[in-house]
Amino acid sequence: MTAALYLLRANKKVLVIEQESIGGQIASSPRVENYPGYKSISGTELTSNLYDQIEELGCSYEFEEVLSIKTEGDYKVVVTDYNTYQGRTVIIATGAKYRRLNLDREEEFIGNGISFCVACDGAFYNDRDVCVIGGGNSALTIALDLVNNTKSVTIIQDLEKLTGEPINVEKILKNPKVNVHYGSKVLGYIIENDEFKGIKILEHGIEKNIPCDGIFVSIGTIANTKPFENLAMDDYKYIIGNDCNETSEEGIYVAGDCKSKRIRQLTTATSDGTIAAISALNYLKKFD
Fold first, then answer.
1. Residue 260: which residues within 8 A CB-CB, separation 6 or more?
2. DSSP tag of 135
3. Which CATH superfamily is domain 100-217 in?
């Protein structure tokens, strides 16, 4: 949407194709406190504001799944599950999806004991015991939001320390409702009478059962780049872009969490969108 904003303000015709929901992963964040200009704002409100901004400028939106992109002459052809679109240039900003634990019966209990999104499922666990899997900043943000209304929050971290921002680590360690298991790995789920009852972990070589009413998994992401395998990617399937965010194919740009880069944050994603849009505008000058 940041890329669309810059292109629309340059009087270009813009189509945004979205497979799921507007705003990507940040839309599911219950609280954003590291975006300039806002002391605190929900991801839903932030993305809604940006959507309203580009809609007012005339942005077109289609909710479809992109299957492939190919070049035909001076045009890029985008094939979706419903239609085919042509444009002079394409910006890929498909982000990443939540990484899963890939344990037995996981699919069965997603949304019914296994969650990824606090904004979506947090309210189901008021006054109940929950576990958060992961120890990075996203996991700590989830834990801090949950601890306000749950009975307890247990963090399962595979490392020997929490790796989130120091200010969040401090809040977590000071909260009496939070317990942390370091050096721990989830081995499986405790299911009784087809109900989620907890998790089995391996903590420093010792197997333990952790009873809980639900878990929130926050162990990183996987790039949503499968339709673009014709482009150069790194070993983890993130799309490689140069300093101008142009991919290995001229006229196709990449922005956000699907790009190969060291730091993935909301602010770096918006920066990528800006760079990609300006690069695309420079590319389009060849057709004037």
1. 233, 234, 236, 238, 239, 240, 241
2. -
3. FAD/NAD(P)-binding domain (3.50.50.60)
CA distance 133 to 87: 42
Tokens (6 digits) for 209:
């059962």
The tens place of each residue's pLDDT in the chain, 288 residues long, gives: 999 999 999 999 999 999 988 888 888 777 788 899 999 998 889 999 999 999 999 999 999 999 999 999 999 999 999 999 999 999 999 999 889 999 999 989 988 899 998 877 888 899 999 999 999 998 999 999 999 999 999 999 999 999 999 999 999 999 999 999 999 999 999 999 999 999 999 999 999 999 999 999 999 889 999 999 999 999 999 999 999 999 999 999 999 999 999 888 899 999 999 999 999 999 999 998
pTM of the model: 0.78
Helix ranges (DSSP H) in the chain = 2-9, 43-56, 106-109, 118-121, 137-146, 166-174, 266-284
Contacts of 147 (CB under 8 A, 6+ apart): 153, 175, 177, 178
| Long-range CB contact pairs, 104-111, < 8 A, 24+ | 104/188, 104/189, 105/189, 105/191, 106/189, 109/189, 109/191, 109/196
- Can you give the C-alpha Rg of the chain in angstroms? 21
Per the DSSP assignment, residues forming a β-bridge with 66 are 80
> What are residue 18's DSSP bridge partners?
63
Domain boundaries of the chain, sorted by first residue: 2-96+222-287, 100-217
2-96+222-287 and 100-217: identical CATH topology: yes
Q: Can you identify the CATH homologous superfamily of domain 2-96+222-287?
A: FAD/NAD(P)-binding domain (3.50.50.60)
* CA dihedral sign, ordered 150, 152, 155, 156: negative
